[in-house]
Design brief:
One of its GO terms (cellular component) is cell outer membrane. Among the domains are: about 220 residues, no CATH class; about 90 residues, TonB-dependent receptor, plug domain (Ferric Hydroxamate Uptake Protein, Chain A, domain 1, Beta Complex), CATH 2.170.130. Helices cover about 15% and strands about 45% of the residues. The chain has 17 helices and 39 strands.
């Protein structure tokens, strides 16, 4: 239980005096409907000792950290995504989850927590249906350190409903508007979440057909006649996957565990043109089998909480590559065994005036083995790495807003240090230091320094060599498109990398836009001995001439794109992010019957989308009877208690907590429970009267209503009326985002069931690359990749953007995804006949239209219940990036149909929840 004295982050006002344990405002599913802490303090009459005490628990699994969330999404928001799984939900909020600190290091999946606890792997929960989610929180990179991760990944905390069951089946059929190939997918998911644990089974089968150059009308000048029909733009693929997940909580010991297993088989077939004699079609066939198991164990150890995770993966891949002369095929095999073990201990061992010091200690023991062979070589590559790592993170609160040294705002410091001992690279070190400053409740700043040594992965060191023949490549030296061989694989001579980064962040909760946050990140990345996968350009050939093979006439034959080591890279990037959610329009007035029919006082119109209504005394009395008529020492029947309240009576493992239930009984059935309820009802009636009757209100309340001149401030009275007379948290227990017709929290306490306003969400991110340079040696040369001297990958744009937005209204939904890539240049060198390339900017938009038929036709049973129909249109405007050479012509290697052979993409998705 949490005791908050004098100042509360409280919940629904009706419950403060009616006797139900309550939770902090941050725990509510719809925070916009809750009163402010100061107003609650003013609204509650003082107890006998003039001390206000609010007892409650946070929403199970919600994080309690200094850093404010970058974005939050509740059940109704998630319903507006039109998602089919948690994986789809994460895709919908991708602009919010991408780290602004990574700069030139590229993207990466964020850190995931389930109910505030580390998980063994992404596969443990990715197939869960979105209806199982109560809330999703996205936290900045600094939060990752508290869970044993480095501070350059954002944290996504997914809070699940404590009681949920569903069976979902989904069928998708998709293909490009211009034809050429189709894709289909079938998925079946079962999930059960109960008081003691959860169980999930998922089966997914996906198939996509082949697309060739001939089907897009593409040719290459020096290719054999008819060869386009035997060169693929997209391979023929098939995959089948089965996943099982199990989690269990043990109330007696506080122990919780989860186990998961996945089996995946995938096949791929692609075409590489014709053999050297122009007769035999060349194929490349791949089969990959993967078996993954993992588990998580969490339990308290004294004053600490311990989490152990294991992730074990075996992958066996076989690639058959037809010989260029058509005489047979070569085989490349790759087998990987991986065991990852991590132990994380979190505690708060020291109390300071501004709060508790948070300490996280993590240890890991990993083992990876890679074995690869190739029929073109006489030996097998075997690499083994044992990794033992450890680290400590300390978060120290210096000042607290409204508390110790509160004049300077909330300030905390973060320090971390760690080591990695690798069997093949020795001992590597890392450390970070950061400061977080929150001058106001809505504005925060942070600065973080990260330094670490990183070894290249075993795949970069030991992957087998694979040659891909007849790949159309633009030769900058001649300005022509030719067919060349691309070589990929591993490089055993890679060095360890040293990274030194700065990250600065500002996070502002916008005062003029409810539930909207604006984030700015500025990252500076410096690295030495960088492992990089090269592209092909004039700059690359100048820097690494031994990686490019030409004949005596200078014609391009092959490019070696295996990883290499760059002496130094430098990048700077600034990232802007906006995340918002809410409802469109003014909240509707409650009906006369809704306001007075239950005997309550008139309710003021909700502000900023708040629903109207107070609590229903009759229904509250029914809840009180649930506790007061159960004999002392026996467990009351909680089945009739609304889920929002029932969840607050559970412990961290999801089981009924005897102490919380005893406290609830004391609040409901104590001697002064009825008196408190009457006092609150009288005060609320006076404030909610029209006009308000302020005479006789406690002085503590009147003091909060006075302005600086000591007179009653009409605006403060208006605000208190909106808070007290409109408090509601409608929507509890929803599983599809709709406002259900009965039994919900809002109806029980007089909520406004007529609120049918459209709901929206918006997540936008824009990145500006300020610097991206590569230094080949200590004295140079220096390659400016933004200016076109590119060594890694393709052309690098200065501006990139990512958009996810959606609108949901009465069962109909629209989701819009957008991507923007700015202009870029690739320099072609100074040799005669060479040519630069100029890449135009590109903006694409994907649209998903969906309809929940059961909600639209108001069918609570039958085949329409839980049925959703969705239409997918990717690249709505069929946008294609234009690439021109110095003559203003489009090279064959950069023909729009080759860069993007799909174009406008159409699909239909049918999903049924049982």
């Amino acid at each position: 239980m949490i005791n908050l004295r004098s100042r509360q982050s409280a919940s629904v006002l009706a419950l403060v005096l009616a006797g139900m344990p309550v939770i902090a405002a941050a725990d509510e599913q719809e925070p916009q409907s809750l009163p402010d802490p100061d107003e609650i303090e003013a609204s509650v009459p003082p107890a006998a000792n003039d001390t206000i005490v609010v007892e409650g628990t946070r929403l199970r699994g919600q994080l309690f950290v200094e850093e404010k969330p970058i974005a939050e999404f509740d059940e109704a928001d998630i319903a507006s995504f039109g998602a089919s799984s948690i994986a789809d939900v994460i895709a919908a909020i991708e602009p919010a989850t991408g780290s602004g600190a990574r700069g030139g290091r590229g993207g990466g999946r964020p850190v995931f927590l389930i109910n505030g606890i580390r998980v063994s792997s992404w596969r443990e929960f990715r197939s869960y249906p979105p209806e199982a989610i109560r809330k999703v929180e996205v936290f900045p990179e600094e939060t990752a350190q508290r869970f044993g991760y480095s501070p350059d990944q954002r944290v996504v905390n997914i809070l699940l409903k404590p009681d949920f069951r569903s069976v979902t089946a989904e069928v998708e059929y998709e293909g490009p508007e211009s034809g050429g190939f189709t894709r289909n997918e079938q998925e079946l998911t079962f999930l059960r979440i109960g008081e003691k644990g959860r169980f999930n089974i998922n089966v997914d089968i996906e198939d996509s057909s082949l697309l060739t150059e001939a089907e897009r009308g593409l040719t290459v000048a020096n290719g054999a006649p008819g060869e386009a029909a035997f060169r693929s733009l997209r391979p023929d693929t098939m995959s089948a996957e089965g996943t099982i997940n199990y989690a269990r909580a043990f109330q007696e010991s506080g122990l919780s565990l989860s186990l998961n297993g996945t089996v995946n088989h995938s096949e791929s077939r692609s075409l590489s043109g014709l053999s050297s004699d122009g007769i035999v079609p060349l194929e490349r066939r791949s089969d990959i089998d993967t078996v993954s198991v993992g588990g998580t164990v969490s339990r308290p150890l004294g004053d600490w909480n311990a989490v152990f995770t294991n992730n074990s993966v075996f992958t066996d891949s076989r690639t058959e590559i037809d010989s260029f002369d058509g005489s047979g095929f070569d085989v490349a095999n790759n087998r990987t065994w991986r065991l990852d073990n991590a132990l994380t201990l979190t505690g708060y061992p020291i109390s300071l005036p501004a709060g508790d010091v948070s300490v996280t200690v993590d240890y890991g023991l990993d083992w990876v083995r890679l074995a690869s062979d190739d029929t073109r070589t006489d030996f097998e590559t075997e690499l083994t790495r044992r990794r033992f790592n450890g680290g400590t993170n300390v978060s120290i609160p210096i000042s607290e807003r409204g508390g110790h040294w509160g004049a300077i705002g909330g300030v905390s410091l973060n320090f971390s240090s760690g080591f990695e001992d690798l069997s093949d690279f020795g001992t590597l070190a890392n450390w970070s230091a950061g400061i977080n400053w929150r001058p106001t409740d809505t504005l925060g700043f942070s600065a973080t320094r990260i330094w670490r040594e990183v070894a290249p992965g075993l795949a970069s060191l030991g992957d087998p060599r694979i040659d891909e023949f007849n790949v159309p490549v633009f030769d900058y030296a001649s300005g022509e498109t030719v067919l060349a061989t691309l070589i990929t694989g591993g490089n055993p001579d890679l060095a360890e990398e040293t990274q030194a980064d700065w990250k600065f962040t500002g996070n502002w909760e916008l005062p003029f836009w409810e539930n909207a946050r604006f984030q700015v990140d500025y990252g500076i990345n410096r690295s030495r001995d960088v492992t990089a996968t090269p592209g092909f350009s004039a700059a690359f050939e100048e820097a690494f001439p031994d990686r490019v093979t030409r004949d005596l006439a200078g014609d391009l034959l092959a490019i070696d794109r295996r990883p290499l080591t760059l002496y130094e890279t430098r990048s700077r990037i600034v990232s802007f992010g906006l995340n918002a959610r809410g409802q469109i329009g003014k909240a509707p007035e409650r009906s006369e019957r809704g306001e007075r029919g239950r005997g309550g006082p008139p309710a003021a119109a909700g502000r900023s989308g708040r629903s109207g209504g107070g609590f229903d005394p009759a229904r509250m009395e029914t809840m009180r009877e649930t506790f007061c008529k159960t004999p002392e020492g026996e467990m009351p029947d909680l089945s009739g208690v609304p889920e929002m309240f029932r969840s607050r009576l559970l412990d961290e493992n999801g089981n009924p907590d005897p102490e919380k239930i005893a406290a609830a009984r004391a609040r409901f059935c104590g001697e002064d429970a009825e008196r408190r309820s009457e006092e609150f009802a009288a005060m609320r009636t006076a404030i909610c009267a029209d006009p308000p009757q302020l005479d006789g209100l406690p002085e503590q309340v009147l003091a909060r209503l006075r302005g600086e001149n000591g007179e009653i401030d009409p605006e403060k009275v208006k605000t208190m009326r909106e808070r007290m007379c409109s408090a509601s948290a409608d929507g509890e227990g929803q599983q599809s985002g709709e406002r259900r017709g009965g039994g919900g929290f809002g109806r029980m306490f007089g909520g406004n069931s007529n609120d049918t306003r459209p709901r929206y969400f918006l997540s936008l991110n824009h990145n500006i690359a300020l610097e991206n340079e590569v230094l080949l040696a200590e004295g140079g040369p220096l390659f400016d990749q933004l200016a076109g001297d590119v060594l890694q990958g393709g052309a690098i744009s200065e501006h990139t953007s990512r958009l996810e937005a959606g609108l949901f209204w009465q069962g109909y939904g629209l989701r819009l995804s957008g991507r923007y890539t700015g202009e870029a240049t690739l320099l072609g060198g100074d040799t005669p006949g060479s040519s630069d390339l100029f890449f135009g900017d590109l903006a694409t938009f994907d649209m998903r239209l969906f309809a929940n038929l059961g909600e639209i036709f108001k069918k609570d049973e039958g085949w329409m219940k839980g049925l959703r129909l969705a239409f997918v249109v990717d690249n709505v405007f069929d946008a294609q990036r234009e690439v021109l050479d110095e003559n203003g012509e489009v090279p064959d290697a950069f023909a729009p149909e080759r860069i993007d052979p799909v174009g406008r993409y159409l699909g239909i998705d049918i999903r049924k929840a049982f």
